[in-house]
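Can't paste images in this forum, so I'm doing it all in text. The chain is below; anyone willing to post the predicted structure tokens underneath?
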Amino acid sequence: MKSGFGAIAVNRQRLLGFLRKEWFQVLRDPSSIIVAVILPVIMLVLFGFGVSLDARQQRVAVVMETSAPEARDFLAALRATPYVVPQVAANRTEAAAALRSGVVKAIIVFADDFGARVNGGGANAAIQVIVDGTDSNTARLLEGYIQGVWAVWLVGREHVDPGSTPTPVNVQFQVWFNAALDSHVSMVPGLIALIMTTIGAFLTALVIAREWERGTMEALLTTPLTRTELLLGKLIPYFMLGMAGMAVSTIFALTVFGLTFAGSYLLLLLSSSVFMLVVLGIGLMASTLTRNQFTASIVALTSSMLPAFLLSGFIFDIRSMVPAVRWVTTVLPARYFVDILKTLFLVGNVWSVILPDLAVLALMAAVLLTITAVATKRNLE
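Text version of the structure:
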């Protein structure tokens, strides 16, 4: 049984009729709408509020071996920060037991000569900090927080006199684009990319395979639909659903999480559209090649969601990965979209970053859709 799928020309009337049929299919099966609109909200809530790379409200045991007012003053400075919760321990033994049991994440010890050292010169003052290294990321953050409080406290009490010793270099720290160092500010744009990867690939992973499993592909093969019309008819409705999910995710990020948007919304629309074509192409290709809904969904998710979560820069810095893994990330579309979203949300329209990433995504979309078109069979074999 032959088909006209090999033709490239598009008949507007046939395409509109096929699109109408696909929209009826979407409306009869609300799972697609749930995946496109409801799933992004659920994932944003779970990841946005449930996952944080900040170490806030960390319990710290404080051992006061002195009653000097300087020690009490620094303890008050610790209590004023949102990152640590000081708990005074009777002695080092009690503090060590709390650290071993996980009740606290660090120990701060004020030795009996702390007051004398402070009054003798802030540069000679010292505190002992013992940090639980079980979670290395939290340990480094907690260490940095305590050092930051210590440095600010010394400067605030004017214990460090810049003129007392020669200072060849004056270091001033400035944090650009995320002055509060809030991990949600950098994580939510990456989370949007992860969500779009998941729902885009999953939406089209089932459409062709469903036709084969239900036997309706035979009916489509008898119609004058061309291959281009078939693919456009399957692609356009889910592209619109995916872009609706993108809009919901962006509005949620701006309103609920309070993120600011520094770039152009038109550029966001363009880059999101190109990326949506890429992930829809992944799902459509999996559906076309496997002809089985379960297999297609597994292939689509394992080739899109899992790599996007681990290797896109969403959570883990790509530059810290080994060279072989960094090379693998170059073929992952989510890597480029995460880069674009973080740039647009936090920095602005940095063309030297956005244009190369956008060009790679456009190339990926063309390749994936071409492979899908070639793989679309002309007959039932």
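Residues 58-156 form a domain with the abc type-2 transporter like fold fold (CATH 3.40.1710.10). The CA atoms of residues 20 and 233 lie 9 Å apart.
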